[in-house]
Amino acid sequence: ISPVRRYFNPRRFTINAGQGAGHWLALYRSPSGTAIPSAGALTGTLMFDAGDDQPVTPAAWALVTAVVTPTVGNPLQFIAQADAHGDFILPLNRMPALAKDAPASTYAAVLTVQIPAQGEEEIENTGEITAIDPDQVIDVDIESFTEAGNFLPSIEFAITPGNTMRIVSRDQPFVVLRQG
C-alpha cells in the first residue's frame, strides 16, 4: 500500500484473503497526514547513533510509542510511525485536559522506540527497506534527553496536556537511537 497523497506511510503486507474472514492491518499516518489535536502532540526526528565523526542516518519507519499516565485514570498508549526521513508526529488524542484542581500540572510519560526487524544496516544503506512490516520490530535504546551518551531502553519525561512538544536528545536537534 502506498497512498498517492502520502497521508499514510507505505506498507508491504501479505494477507490470505480466503474464506471471507475479516483482516486487520495497521496503517500509520505520515507527518504530512497528521493533524495536531488540541490535546497536544510529540514531534521529532529519529536518527541512529553514528559514532564520532560519522554522518547520522535516519531511523526510517521506526515506531514511536508513548505511554502517558494521567493523574486520574488508566495509562494511555499512543503510537506513531516515522517516515523515511525519521520524522514523526505523535498526536495525543484522548489525553484528558488538566482539571483546575489537578494535583500536578503535568502527566508522566514513557517513550520507547522500535525499528523494523530488517535491521539498521539495510535502512542505513538504502534509506528504505524492502518490506516495511511494523508488526515485526525490535527495540532500540534512546539517548537520554538530559545526559549525552547515556542510552536507555525507555525515556521518562513529563508532558503538559494541550502542548506540542519537540523531543530531542541532549545537545542534538533530533533523538539519537542505538541498537541494543
Q: What proportion strand?
A: 25-35%
Output the helix-strand order.
Answer: EEEEEEHEEEEE
Globally, the shape reads globular
Q: Output the radius of gyration.
A: 17 Å
The total of helices stands at 1
Percentage of helical residues? Answer: under 10%
Main beta-sheet annotation: 11 strands, mixed
Mean pLDDT: 85
Unreliable spans: 119-129
Total beta-strand segments: 11
SS content category: mainly beta
Cα(first) to Cα(last) distance is 30 Å
In short:
The protein is mainly beta. The protein contains one helix and eleven strands. Strands 1, 2, 3, 4, 5, 6, 7, 8, 9, 10 and 11 form an eleven-stranded mixed β-sheet that branches.
What does this structure look like?
It is a single chain. Strands 1, 2, 3, 4, 5, 6, 7, 8, 9, 10 and 11 form an eleven-stranded mixed sheet that branches. This protein is 4% helix and 33% strand. It has 180 residues and is mostly beta strands. It is globular, with a radius of gyration of 17 Å. The chain contains one helix and eleven strands; from the N terminus they run E-E-E-E-E-E-H-E-E-E-E-E.
Topology:
Layout: E1 41-48, E2 57-58, E3 63-69, E4 76-81, E5 87-91, E6 107-116, H1 120-126, E7 137-143, E8 151-152, E9 155-159, E10 164-166, E11 175-179
